Amino acid sequence: MKVDEIMSSSIVAAKPTDTVAHAKNLMLRYKMKHLVIVDRGKPVGMLSMSDIAEYLGKGSAAWRRRPVDNIPIARLMRKGVLMVSVGTDLKKAAALMLKRNMGSLVVQDGENIAGMVTKTDLTRSFAESLGGRVKVRDLMSHELVTVGRTRSLTHVIELMTKRGVGRVIVIEGKRPVGILTEGDIAFAQLEQPGEGAKEREVKYTRRLERADRPRARYIKRMASVAAEDVMHLGLLTISADEDAARAAAMMIEHGISGLPAIEGEKIVGIITKTDLVRGMTNLGV
User: Which pTM does this prediction carry?
Assistant: First the structure.
């Protein structure tokens, strides 16, 4: 199968000088996670939800210095565009996405741009053509990345970047209570209109100057957004013994990029669109 059989023929584009707010509006309107950035009629870069989320994690609470929505796309975009021809095999396209850590490829027909193929397109193809070939447990990642529900959003973004994941399971104690993705972060309301960044009480202790005195307890109100402020409550799960094509179909149906895999009531792994794309490179497509 070739990329032109599953690609989207329409491409959503923006200019480097457009604001991130404009880019986010385009993503929401057209239900896209990736935009082609065009300057003077030529593609010069890409912008994705993960690029926006990653930017928010740079420095200390970057949104408190300047709202990300007001920043030009040129500050966040990935320069350069990865292209394939309309006749490229899906297996080769999948391998290229994994190698370059990209969620989309621009498809060319000669000198013209014919469309775009994304991990979502590949996931849909997996659901339609690879049923009965492999189980969820054969493709899923066994390592779960979790965060406490009160951990700061800055910590969550740093953890995602360090571990190379696009989502984390939010826990309270040892109990899973929700899931938080790059998309949730990219579109989060980090500031309250007319009030600035959200605040929460932070309790800490400090030793007084004299050694014979006890520690003093303080409570401060600090600008902070926590995982629980942004996460999706509840978890949509799938059995580890389920057909991986069923997992792909569920991701398409619910507009999500990953599913925790369970055995009984225990979460034993997570299967994502990236896992499905990796599986396509090992299966005949």
Answer: 0.80
